[in-house]
Each structure stands twice: as structure tokens, then as C-alpha cells.
Design a protein that fits this description.
By secondary structure, the protein is an alpha+beta fold. The chain contains ten helices and 22 strands. It has three domains: about 100 residues, Rossmann fold; about 55 residues, Dna Ligase, domain 1; about 200 residues, ATP-grasp fold, B domain (D-amino Acid Aminotransferase, Chain A, domain 1, 2-Layer Sandwich). The strands form four sheets. Strands 11, 12, 13, 14, 15, 16, 17, 19 and 21 form a nine-stranded antiparallel sheet that branches. Strands 1-4-3-2-5-6 form a six-stranded parallel sheet, with helices on both faces. The longest helix is centred in the middle third of the chain and has 18 residues.
């Protein structure tokens, strides 16, 4: 029989640091990113706090203290954080005004509220790239859907909500004027589509002294219908000159953000080997999940090092890796059941991560599988085998 340590429900009163020097650090959001961050926290002298509105969220049973609350509400976020040493996020949609007040009162925030404010608003994010001469696709800001009529020269284009989009939601492809009805009637970005050869992600950690550590770039393959990462390969196969561009751009980007933390920079490489920044995430990221097994210091371990003031970890790869996302299968909604799990568990150098979400629905992220191998073809073969064998469906009532 397996016993879990009881969750402690708390309404505040925690000191920033215990008598033994254990720091009290909070995570806003309790999804799978918070879950994996807490798994890495077990190696450090830290007292963990999570705030989420769902007490059955994936991270709830792994933290020392769970607080039920709304991460978008000023009072909830402020009361959650006022007695903590530091706070980080696992999703951008948090109340940054409360974080700004907490920062003024001495609570460390990763990333800084100023960096978060830029990144969580796609209009501010794109303007930040332009102002700092960071290459990105051509764009214009729209306030209403009717404005698309004036900017057909950008078609084919992508229309993105300024606020609230996540995991493919809040994004519409506008190829021709016939697609303009799909546009958003609220502040958004219309950006010209890039003739993409590769989609690349690179994760970079920055400490309080401005020192940084970069993980090897990864090649991302997306599910075009759901606009979700389907599988990825690490390291990405790129000419040295392209890799150098990517590394230089990512370094410049985080330098101008001027914030400690961990950042995932998503980029496009076009058919002429030009590199453009697509988006940046100010947190641990799906494109870095393989680092748990494939790199000496995972992205989750690295963020704890940054927050606790420890030396940055080693980002070198132990072995090449692939990731397959486990998404809820089409046509199934309800209690999650993992078909083919035992068969996949027989494979060598395959690591399964189930996120602990009770309910599945089409396209929902339910877990991921990491594959390690020295051979790229073996990684691709095993990734396709897993995609065709392991399915997340609903339990039959």
C-alpha cells in the first residue's frame, strides 16, 4: 500500500525562512509543470507552497502546503506570497500587480514582474523584440477583427490574441481574405507567416548575477491541427552557423529581459536559414521535459538552483533524446485510462511521465514519454511506435 504525506492547507503565516535555513518558496499554478518542479524540489532544503483553485490538481499532493485560491486575483496572490522567500509561476496568466507589490516588499519573484508583463501580452512581447532588434516576423497590432481588411498584404498570416492564449488556443491562421472571419475582435497581433523549415526551442537559465546556462537546442514537431507539440528531438540537427545565430539571439533576448529565472525561446528557421523568434515562455516549458533524464541538470533542477542561489547546473546532454506528448484521444472525455502502457514500459531507455489528471478530453496534455538513444533513427522509430501504441482514452462507465 502506498501512503502519501498529507497536504497542509494554509491561510498564511509562513516565515520566509525557517530556523534551519530552509527557504519557503511558492508556485502559482498546480498543473504538470508545478508537479515536475516539486519532484525536483525534493533534493533541496525548501518548504514548498502551491496555490491553485483545484485541490485535486496534479501538483497538490506533492507540495508541503496547498492553498486554494485564484492565481489571477490580487488579494489571493498577495496573501499567498507575503510571507514567502520567493515565488515562481507555471503559467503566465497570474496577477502581476500583486507580484509587483510583493517584489517591492522584498519577496523574490521569478521571473520579475516587469519581464512577466512583457511576455504575457503578445503585443508587448512583439514590440519588445522590435525595440531590441531581436529578429521576429513582420506584424501589426489589431484592435478589432475588421482591421484585417486593411492588412491583407501580410497574408498568409497568424492572428494571435494579445492576452489569454495558451497551448494553441487564441491562435488563428488567416491564409486569404476568405479566412478573415476567423479573426479576433479584441486586441491581437497579426504576424506574417514564416516559410518554416524547422521549429526550434532553446531553454536558457539566468541567475541573480546575470550569468546564464543554455541547454542544447531542440527540434520541435507540432500537431498542426491542435497546434501542440507532438514530439521533439534533442539535440536539433542544425548547421553550426544557424546554431550560433539561435544561441546569440536567445542570449540577447534574456539579457534585455533583465530577469533571473528560466526562459524557453521558440524560434523559426526558414528555408534560407534565417532565424526568427516566435514566442518566449518565462518558465519551465514542455520543450525541456527531456532534460529530466537526458541532461545532467534538468530545467526543473536548474530553476531551484536559480531561486535558492546555488551555482547553475550542467546543461550538457547525457544522451540524445526524443519526447512524445501523451494527448487525450479524439472522441474520449471522462476518467483517464492509458491503453498500451504495459507494452511501452517494456521498452529500454523509455521513461513515462503521467501527469495525474483525473479527466481526459481530446487534445489535453496527459503526460509525456522520453526516449534516450545514441541513434537518431532509433529515437524517431521509438517515438512513432509510442504514438501508435499508447493512447489516453476514457474509462467505460
Amino acid at each position: 500500500m502506498i501512503y502519501f504525506a498529507p497536504m497542509i492547507y494554509n491561510d498564511g503565516g509562513a516565515l520566509p525562512e525557517t530556523k534551519t535555513g530552509t527557504k519557503k518558496i511558492g508556485i502559482l499554478g498546480g498543473g504538470q509543470l508545478g508537479r515536475m518542479l516539486l519532484q525536483a524540489a525534493a533534493n533541496y532544503p525548501v518548504d514548498t507552497f502551491v496555490m491553485e483553485n483545484d485541490p485535486l490538481c496534479p501538483a497538490a499532493h506533492l507540495c508541503h502546503h496547498f492553498i486554494k485560491g485564484d492565481i489571477t486575483n490580487f488579494e489571493d496572490v498577495y496573501n499567498f506570497g507575503k510571507d514567502l522567500y520567493a515565488i515562481t509561476i507555471e503559467i503566465e496568466n497570474v496577477n502581476e500587480e500583486a507580484l509587483e507589490k510583493l517584489a517591492l516588499e522584498g519577496v523574490k519573484i521569478y521571473p520579475t514582474p516587469a519581464a512577466l508583463k512583457i511576455i504575457k501580452n503578445k503585443i508587448l512581447q512583439k514590440k519588445f523584440y522590435k525595440e531590441n532588434e531581436i529578429p521576429t516576423s513582420d506584424f501589426i497590432v489589431t484592435e478589432q477583427a475588421g482591421e484585417l481588411q486593411q492588412h491583407q498584404h501580410l497574408f498568409p498570416a497568424v492572428h494571435k490574441l494579445a492576452m489569454g492564449g495558451y497551448d494553441g488556443r487564441g491562435v488563428q491562421v488567416i491564409k486569404t481574405k476568405d479566412d478573415m472571419s476567423k479573426g479576433f475582435d479584441t486586441p491581437s497581433i497579426l504576424e506574417k507567416m514564416v516559410d518554416i523549415k524547422k521549429e526550434i526551442a532553446v531553454i536558457i537559465a539566468v541567475n541573480e548575477q546575470g550569468e546564464h546556462a543554455m541547454y542544447p537546442a531542440v527540434d520541435m514537431v507540432f500537431n498542426q491541427r491542435l497546434n501542440l507539440l507532438e514530439y521533439q528531438l534533442s539535440p536539433a540537427e542544425l548547421p553550426d552557423k544557424v546554431l550560433w545565430k539561435i544561441e546569440a539571439i536567445a542570449t540577447k533576448l534574456v539579457k534585455h529581459l533583465n530577469s533571473p529565472g528560466i526562459f524557453a525561446v521558440e524560434l523559426f528557421v526558414d528555408n534560407k536559414d534565417n532565424v526568427f523568434v516566435n514566442e518566449t515562455a518565462p518558465r519551465v516549458h514542455n520543450s525541456g521535459h527531456h532534460t529530466i533524464e537526458a541532461n545532467y541538470s534538468s530545467q526543473f533542477d536548474m530553476l531551484w538552483r536559480v531561486m535558492l542561489g546555488y551555482p547553475l547546473g550542467c546543461t550538457d546532454a547525457i544522451l540524445p533524446a526524443a519526447i512524445v506528448n501523451l494527448l487525450g484521444a479524439e472522441g474520449y472525455t471522462g476518467g483517464a485510462c492509458y491503453e498500451g502502457l504495459q507494452e511501452i514500459m517494456k521498452l529500454e531507455n523509455v521513461f513515462i511521465h503521467i501527469y495525474g489528471k483525473k479527466e481526459t478530453k481530446p487534445g489535453r496534455k496527459m503526460g509525456h514519454v522520453t526516449i534516450l538513444s545514441k541513434e537518431k533513427q532509433e529515437l524517431i522509430h521509438q517515438a512513432n511506435r509510442i504514438k501508435n501504441t499508447l493512447r489516453v482514452v476514457a474509462l467505460i462507465p
